[in-house]
Design brief:
This protein has 99 residues and is mostly helical. It has 3 helices and no strands. α1 packs antiparallel against α2.
């Protein structure tokens, strides 16, 4: 009689695909490696390589965060420049119309 081994339920590893897809709209150059790493997670889990899946998920999360940070910072800089330029233009616009 052989002992029965209880099979462990497969570990769930978050692949961060949602955050990677959101990041692609903000700053795509950094979001591409995030999507590539996120797409590696599920096949690695199916192969039983949980350490590799967690490493790929961590890389995906890292690249996604950087893409979000850079994208949001870029949008903030553009907004500040546009609003600042608009305010300066409206303030000096009344003085510059000397025709």
């Amino acid at each position: 009689m052989q002992p029965e081994y209880q099979s462990q339920p497969p570990q769930s590893v978050d692949n961060n695909m949602t955050m990677s897809i959101v990041a692609i709209f903000l700053f795509w150059p950094l979001a591409i490696p995030a999507i590539i790493n996120a797409s590696k997670v599920n096949p690695l889990v199916q192969q039983g390589d949980y350490a590799g899946a967690q490493a790929a998920a961590a890389e995906s999360k890292k690249w996604s965060k950087w893409a979000l940070i850079v994208g949001i910072a870029w949008i903030a800089i553009v907004l500040v420049c546009c609003l600042g330029g608009g305010l300066l233009g409206s303030m000096s616009g009344s003085n510059a119309s000397g025709y």
